[in-house]
Structures are given as structure tokens and as C-alpha cells.
Write a structure and sequence with these properties.
594 residues; alpha+beta; Penicillin-binding protein 2a (Domain 2); Beta-lactamase; Trypsin Inhibitor V, Chain A; 3 domains; seven-stranded mixed beta sheet; five-stranded antiparallel beta sheet; 16 helices
Amino acid sequence: MASDMWQRSFPLLAPRGYIYDTNMITLASNIPTFSLAFMPYQIKDKYEVASRVGEILGVDRDELYNKINKNISIVRLNGAGRNINDDIARRISLLNLEGVYLLQDSKRYYPYDNMLSNVLGFSGVDNQGLAGIEAYYDNYLKGTNGSLNYYMDAKGGLFSNLESNIVSPVSGLSISLTVDFNIQSILERELNNAYVKYNPSSIMGMVMNPNTGEILAMSNYPNYNPNNYKEYDSYLYNFNLPVWKSYEPGSTFKVFSFAAALNEKKINMYKDTYYDTGSVKVGGATIKSWKKGGHGLQTYLEVLQNSSNPGFVSIARKLGKDNLFNYITNFGFGSKTGVDMYGETSGIMFKYESYNELEQATSAFGQGISVSMIQMMAAYSSLINGGNLMKPYILKDVRTTNTNDIVYENKPVLVRKVISKETSDLMRDALEHVASLGSGRTAYIDGYRVGGKTGTAQIVNPETGAYYDREYNLSMIASAPMDDPSVVAYVVMERPHSAIQYGGTIVGPIIKNILEDVLPYMGVSKRSGGIDKSYTWMDTKTYIVDNYIGKSKKEVKSQYFKFEFVGVGDKVIDQLPKMGEKIEEGSTIVIMLG
């Protein structure tokens, strides 16, 4: 009993484990710092201590005096007394004040500032995870605190005949994510550029492996710097839009009702036709095509290419209530994916009993229902990976901090089979047609066989239930290469303020920029056999580069390209781009002379 009365303890905080990307690039680490502690019984002149320490810390003397003038054994100074840097610690140490102690501490550090901030989250001064991955996997990361145990008499003096002891803190485990730093950098660059250029209310994007459900990149704007999280509005702390934001998907959703009709053999997309007159009556409402007068006679593949709303009313009617409702729910809409991040929404789906003719028609082309980006990514991946709905995940493995030995490794999880492999094969061809001949042509990349679907969705006023006038979510989801898909990218832009309001026009080029850099980085080579892009008068055409090597400088000519000459001489010894590559009209070819 006496021992318990005499014993005092300084807590020794355990450093958190590190967070790495899939290639062991550090995304969150620790910086050594100091914290202040006071033993009031040992301080003879509390006013002097409060004045001299308060001046260095920038703390009011009277406020500090009131804290240390208490009848307790230890005072821990929070706020200015936590995470003190080396310079301040050195200045306090040189004061050599009795009863004032500097304790080893650590501060969480995010070396890439805002990058991945809404996913990573942050931890507090006591090293507890407060948001994002830091909070979700806090039990792995936080470690076990230790203590410095010592014995004091009633006057605050140390018992010389009782030995102090240290219970060492145990560092937290480290985790690596499925996120690839290089792919994340590409995504962040494109989202940031679009955020500056188009001034939307928000923009979000994801890149995923469609075969496993691994999240390769995830981001949204606005975001924040977790190193200085207190400087931001608290609503940003859990602003991980791809997981918790729900929205009407618009025409990107058409791929799921289309796949359902193929899987149920309700349509032959190459042979069966639909005549789009420009509108169709459904349950007393008129559903219009975006093209005045309609698209005329189309195959169902062209219905998808042209994103014809009346055509999808026809598809909804062919499927019927039960089939369409079951497929939408089997694709995962209306329920959470189970991704390992906090705040996931389940979206909003019609109840079966109120899923009538009009609701069936509008849901077939992505209106009247609400989805999340993570749901769309998982469902779209099942269209192109053979029909398997995979559970999305971001934790790759858990490992010891000092030796990096893996103690737990995450594995892909199959949720269910939603369509057949044969239907998936057809969907890959259909989606490639959309990105080559239809609304997704702005994301076309020669040689990479891109497939995807654009969307332009009106935004609902939550107070009235009516759509806002001229306010849209613009989006595109795309994958490549379509003969063996290895990556899916998806971008959604909310309310752009300086742009033409079409997903294909604005978001398509963003998707193209992402895939153009991600695919070569992933080692995906160009391949033949794709569908050539169709051009309109608005498009910049591409042409094949001729061979100029061996020609004289005077012979280097083209009606499509410009030239930049490098080197001295009259003979062409090299060129970039090489012969046979397709580049846009007006591009510059670099010619090396020798």
C-alpha cells in the first residue's frame, strides 16, 4: 500500500507504425519531438518558472502559473507544451529549472502534404488515429505506451533507496496500402488541374485493379494538409468523397442495365434494333433523347454508343421489373461494398414495392437512384473481369515496424458472380465501341483499346426533390486494354462553373490523360486489333508518322505535322515520334540531323 502511494509515473508514448504505399514509399511517419512536464513539489519559485518557460512557449505567465500551482504530483502541459521542436527544447533545457522536465515524444508527419489526405486522415497529439486510415486501422498503428516509474516522498523528493524502472513503449505495427504512389500522383495532378481550370464544387477520382478490387489511387478536391489539420474546417476531415458521397450517376449507369439485357438474352446488340424518334411516353411522363429528333434506327450497340435514353426505356421494358431490380441490387447498388474505410454510404435505391414503370425506366439510364463512386468502380469492374463482383480494399498488408516482417496479408474477396463470362466478353466489346465511336471518344488512346462510358447527370435539390436548372455532375468511367483489362479509372466533377456541361467533353480528356500515363507505367504495351476512332468536325484528327531517317533536311515535309530540327548536318539520323506512331494533327516531330 505504501509503495502504491509513493509511486509516480511518466507516460512514455509509443510511436505509431508507418503507412506505406504498395512499393514501400512512406506516406506517414514520425518526427522525434519533446513534451513538457512539471513536478509542482520540486518547483521553488513557480512565478519565475511560469514567466521564463511561458516566454519561450508564447504562453501567458498567469495561465501557466495557475496550471503548475496545483497540489498534484505531475502537470502535463498540452497544446504549446506538446510536440516541441529541438530549438525550443534546447532553450528550455538551458534554463536548468528544477521541477521542469522534457520528455521524448513524436509527431505524426505526412511527407507529401495534401496527397491522399482524405484517405490517410491524421492522428492527434496523443498519437491516436482521428480520421481516415489512421483511425480505421488505429488498433494496428497505435502501439502500446510505456512508463517511467519512480518513487517520491510527500515533498516531491525522490526516494534514493527505491530504484526507478522503465516499462518500454512498444511501437505500433506498420501497414502498406494497395495505393501506388506513382498512380496516385498522376490522379492528383489531373484532378488538381481540373479543379483549378473548371472551378467545380468538388471533383473526385479513383483508379482500381478490376480483377482484384485493389484501390490503386483515390482522391478528391477540396482536400487539406494533415500536417496542419487544425487550420482547416473540420468538415474536410472526413471528406472522402469516393466512399461517402452519393449522387445520381446518369448515363454511366446505362452499362449495367445493358449488361443485364445481354445476360438475360433479351437483346442481340449487333442485330436487334430500336428506332429512336426523340422521345417516349412512360407512365404519363415524356422521356426525351438528348438529340433533338432522336437517333433514328439503331442497333442496341448504337443505343449504348449514342447514349439514347428512349433506347434504354426499351431495354427496361424488355427486362421487366424483377430482372432489372435484381440485377441492380446484385451489382451492389443499394448496399455497402464493405471497403475498409469509414463513412461508406449505401446509396439510395427504390424499394421493390414502389419500383413501378417510370422508376424502372429512369433507373435503367441512371436517374432517380443514388450511388457512390466505390460502388460504381466495383460494379463496372465486374462487367469486364469475367463477371465477378470483387470487394474493394485498400489494406495490402500489416508488418512489424523494425524488421518489416509481414504478419498479415490481405487477399481479394469474391462477393458473387453477377454476369457470365460470355456477357463480360460482349461488354468489353460494347464499351470499346463507346470509347471509339460513341460518347466516350474523347478518352480514345490509339493502341491501348480504351472502353468506357460518359455521364451527364442533373443534380437534385434535396429540399424540393426537383432538379436544379443547369447544374450537373459530369463523369466518365473507363478501362483498358479491353482485350485484357488491367485498370479502371473514374472521375466525377460536380457543378463545373466554366465549362460546357457534358461528361464526354470535359471529363473524357481527363480520363485520357490519366490512362495515357498509368498504362505505360504499369507495363501495359500497345496492341493491335482495336476499333479505330470515328471523327467529327470538332475532333483533332490523328495521322501516322512517316519514316524520315536517311532523308535530307529538304525532303522532310508533311501536310499534317510541324518539325523541329536538332543537331548539325543535312542527313536525318533519328526522329521522335518513331515511324508508324499515330499523333494529332499539328503536333511537332523532332528530327535529329547528323
